[in-house]
């Protein structure tokens, strides 16, 4: 059982409670124009186009497959910019044993582990196998297992993952179906159903909403958010993220950036409507 | 000597110094007009070239560099010399300490150690309400910052979880003052998660306290105990350090043909010169200055034989990179396993040299190795064994690269982990990082939250707004601001890389 991992962090304080080791799994089932990590979307098809742009020669083709030498890489990201299909030649394959070994090496520093992406649940089998192994290992069982997801997973999938998961951070991209399709390429019925299912199971750690001026911050969107949170429990953590067009490619790079004032205004509205845990960004760029 | 007069004139006319700061600068200048303690030619030459360095402590060491009185003595016996009766309640105890501090010399002219305050004050807190303790400590804290405004001045609390320690943490987070600096002595077996999490919560508020690895320090010292003072120096209580000299490891590495030459000849040679420099200074203090005739000794606040000598080193990062280059290796200190291992080997060699060198008038007859946290004049040189500013890896990799050094530096070693302000939304991450660092063998955990006005410069706290003000020639109330402004302008200190990984997943970015 292997996962395609685009990046591993030993220190993250923005992917759940405490310090978390984060695995970013490659590949996503949404296609968001607002994505800041487009290179995590697709899997590499070994076309080789990125090889010539890599000045330190960290990339090559070995038996028709892209090969990456991390010791030469200067993190310039030129290969990511050139890739025509939003893939990443620097991914690594990791099996559960390798992830457990890495976890053990850093154990005293860790509150838990978070699977993010791309879309973590798109590699469901691996996610379940990893969390199961952590829960079964005596020295690791105290670690909390979190998933950061777009919620595009059905009840059968959640049934497998939730018993070994401690918390889920769920992105809701939009409440209006048309808007959601525009923003992700897919409908939102699964994501909304996931919110209800996760809340009912007590594993919904946080709802995350990206506030895009004129798109996801309209009165109708906010009313729908309030209605959902009230169904889930007014104490649900609601994390508001501010859309920023810096670093976005394609049409969304022309969209307006969310201002601090406007976001604070939204937070005030939500709090006034009875939401008790509305969280706004600490850092503004 | 017109040059010297001109220098004195520059001090008296400096608009950015208060009159007290001028008086202090004038006394330093006067001391340095005296001849230096006698040195052999070779040592003098190495000192001139600043391969070895006396920290500009002055030409006539008439007081130890760091003095750590056992304040329990004056609190339980009073003082004949100061005509102080034995204090009977918390007010009297605080008043006695406030008086005592003024009679404790150090290299800065202000005390560097104001005691293990919970141990000292708890006996006076029986029957005192939490609210009263809070109000009294708040006034005491304000007094210290306004009257002894020096960030080298250090208070200790812990390792037990107690009312005084908690109140001090509460007051410290509220007031966010430069002084006193604060260290929590932490013992995973006895301190408890609640106290540590209050402390790490404070770090998020004001980048204080430091967290000291109590079991490691306790094993290094004796039953009388130790204190953490100034820039994270661990020293014997009822004693201190008579002097601190340091070796510029980069300069030593530059004088070596290759790594082998470095270890077999050049390092031992300069290490020896540093011992000679140290001896000359200690000789003056013990045999000429008369310091140990003071009431501090006769009343038992300090003991003549409890003063260690701090054997400092710095610029490990540059030394390793120089030796790596000479060997044709490209791996950089802090990032490459072989470069890091070379650094660890240098630390071990230094430790062996110090262990092998008997010293007179030094606690336990041996100097103590120290990773020196920098001077404001160190341009292009990294403090102690730290990783150069702005090139630090993520905090976990950072700790792992440096942890093996910590076993070799009993009189103090510290790394500053710079954390991006996103950590403010998640103080549990600081708590976990701290636990990880101490479990990995760090003697000291220090973190800096990047957007804070209050930041750590080499080893002491400073307000960024004070630096800006100082640069505008407005003058500053606190002594260390001058040093910090100099440090910020000369070194890359303000470029410490804010470091929270997963930047692209920070609020507003994650899609
Ligand atoms: S990363 Fe992109 S450009 Fe490079 S080989 Fe894979 S698909 Fe081709
Ligand atoms: S990021 Fe690394 S692999 Fe990609 S082009 Fe730059 S050096 Fe080459």
TrEMBL record, chain A:
Statement: the UniProt record of this protein carries the keyword Transferase: no
Recorded GO MF terms: 4 iron, 4 sulfur cluster binding; metal ion binding; oxidoreductase activity
Domain of life: Bacteria
Domain 4Fe-4S ferredoxin-type: from-to ranges: 64-93
InterPro entries for the chain: 4Fe4S_Fe-S-bd, 4Fe4S_Fe_S_CS, Aldolase_TIM, BssD/PflA/YjjW, Organic_radical-activating, Organic_radical_activase, Radical_activat_CS, rSAM
Domain spans labelled Radical SAM core: 14-276
SUPFAM superfamilies the record matches: 4Fe-4S ferredoxins, Radical SAM enzymes
Transmembrane segments: none
UniProt-listed PROSITE patterns: 4FE4S_FER_1 (PS00198), 4FE4S_FER_2 (PS51379), RADICAL_ACTIVATING (PS01087), RADICAL_SAM (PS51918)
Keywords: 4Fe-4S, Iron, Iron-sulfur, Metal-binding, Oxidoreductase, S-adenosyl-L-methionine
Cofactor(s) required, per the database record: [4Fe-4S] cluster
Family matches, as Pfam families: Radical_SAM
PANTHER family: GLYCYL-RADICAL ENZYME ACTIVATING ENZYME YJJW-RELATED, PYRUVATE FORMATE-LYASE-ACTIVATING ENZYME
Similarity comment: family membership: Belongs to the organic radical-activating enzymes family.
UniProt name for this protein: Radical SAM domain protein
Taxonomic source organism: Rhodobacter ferrooxidans
TrEMBL record, chain B:
A Pfam match: YjjI-like
Classification via InterPro entries: Glycyl_radical_YjjI-like
Domain of life of the native organism: Bacteria
Protein name: YjjI family glycine radical enzyme
Species, as recorded: Rhodobacter ferrooxidans
């Amino acid at each position: 059982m292997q996962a395609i991992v685009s990046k591993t962090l030993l220190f993250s304080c923005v992917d759940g409670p405490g310090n978390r080791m984060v695995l970013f799994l490659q590949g996503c089932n949404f296609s968001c124009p607002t994505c800041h990590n487009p290179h995590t979307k697709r899997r590499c098809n070994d076309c080789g186009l990125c090889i010539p742009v890599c000045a330190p020669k960290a990339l090559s083709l070995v038996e028709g497959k892209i090969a990456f030498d991390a010791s030469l890489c200067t993190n310039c990201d030129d290969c990511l910019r050139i890739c025509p299909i939003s893939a990443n030649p620097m991914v690594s394959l990791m099996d559960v044993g390798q992830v457990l070994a890495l976890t053990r090496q850093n154990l005293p520093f860790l509150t838990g582990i978070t699977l993010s992406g791309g879309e973590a649940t798109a590699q469901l089998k691996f996610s379940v196998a990893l969390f199961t192994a952590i829960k079964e290992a005596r020295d690791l069982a105290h670690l909390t297992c979190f998933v950061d997801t777009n919620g595009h997973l059905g009840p059968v999938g959640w049934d497998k993952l939730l018993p070994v998961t401690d918390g889920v951070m769920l992105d809701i991209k939009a409440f209006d179906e048309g808007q959601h399709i525009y923003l992700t390429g897919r409908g939102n019925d699964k994501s909304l159903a996931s919110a209800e299912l996760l809340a009912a199971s007590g594993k919904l750690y946080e709802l995350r909403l990206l506030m895009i001026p004129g798109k996801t911050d309209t009165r109708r969107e906010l009313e729908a958010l309030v209605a959902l949170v009230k169904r889930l429990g007014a104490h649900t953590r609601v994390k508001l993220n501010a859309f920023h067009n810096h670093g976005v490619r394609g049409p969304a790079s022309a969209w307006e950036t969310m201002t601090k004032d406007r976001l604070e205004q939204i937070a005030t509205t939500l709090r006034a409507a009875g939401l008790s845990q509305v969280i706004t960004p600490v850092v503004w760029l | 000597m017109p040059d010297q007069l001109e220098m004195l004139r520059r001090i008296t006319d400096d608009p950015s110094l208060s009159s007290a700061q001028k008086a202090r600068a004038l006394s330093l200048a006067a001391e340095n007009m005296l001849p230096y303690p006698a040195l052999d030619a070779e040592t003098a030459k190495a000192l001139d070239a600043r391969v070895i360095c006396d920290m500009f402590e002055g030409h006539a060491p008439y007081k130890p560099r760091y003095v750590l009185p056992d304040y329990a003595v004056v609190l339980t016996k009073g003082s004949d010399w100061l005509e102080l009766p034995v204090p009977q309640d918390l007010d009297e105890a605080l008043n006695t300490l406030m008086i005592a501090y003024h009679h404790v010399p150090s290299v800065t002219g202000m005390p560097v150690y104001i005691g293990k305050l919970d141990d000292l004050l708890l006996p006076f807190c029986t029957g005192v309400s939490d609210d009263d303790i809070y109000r009294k400590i708040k006034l005491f804290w304000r007094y210290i910052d306004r009257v002894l405004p020096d960030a080298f001045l250090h208070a200790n609390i812990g390792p037990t979880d107690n009312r005084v320690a908690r109140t001090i943490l509460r007051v410290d987070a509220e007031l966010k003052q430069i002084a006193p600096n604060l260290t929590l002595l932490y013992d995973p077996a006895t301190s408890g998660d609640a106290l540590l999490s209050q402390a790490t919560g404070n770090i998020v508020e004001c980048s204080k306290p430091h967290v000291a690895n109590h079991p490691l320090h306790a094993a290094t010292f004796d039953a009388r105990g130790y204190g953490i003072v100034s820039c994270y120096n661990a020293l014997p209580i009822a004693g201190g350090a008579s002097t601190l000299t340091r070796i510029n490891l980069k300069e030593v590495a530059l004088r070596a043909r290759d790594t082998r030459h470095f270890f077999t000849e050049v390092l031992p040679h300069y290490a020896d010169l540093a011992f000679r420099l140290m001896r000359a200074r200690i000789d003056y203090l013990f045999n000429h200055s008369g310091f140990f005739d003071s009431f501090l000794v006769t009343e038992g606040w300090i003991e003549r034989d409890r003063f260690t000598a701090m054997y400092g080193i710095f610029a490990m990062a540059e030394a390793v990179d120089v030796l790596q280059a000479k060997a044709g290796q490209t791996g950089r200190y802090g990032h490459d396993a072989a470069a890091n291992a070379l650094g660890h080997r240098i630390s071990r060699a230094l430790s062996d040299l110090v262990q092998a060198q008997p010293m007179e008038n030094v606690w336990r007859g041996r100097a103590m190795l120290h990773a020196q946290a920098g001077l404001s004049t160190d341009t292009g040189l990294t403090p102690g064994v730290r990783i150069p500013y702005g090139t630090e890896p993520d905090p976990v990799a950072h700790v792992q690269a440096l942890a093996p050094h910590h076993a070799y530096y009993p009189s103090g070693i510290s790394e500053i982990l710079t954390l991006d302000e996103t950590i403010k939304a998640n103080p549990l991450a600081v708590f976990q990082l701290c636990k990880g660092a101490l479990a990995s063998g760090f003697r000291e955990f220090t973190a800096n939250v990047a957007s804070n006005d209050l930041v750590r410069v080499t080893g002491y706290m400073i307000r960024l707004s004070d630096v800006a003000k100082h640069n505008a020639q407005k003058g500053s109330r606190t002594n260390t601001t001058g040093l910090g402004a100099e440090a910020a302008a000369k070194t890359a200190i303000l470029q410490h890389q804010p470091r929270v990984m997963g930047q692209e997943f920070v609020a507003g970015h994650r899609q």
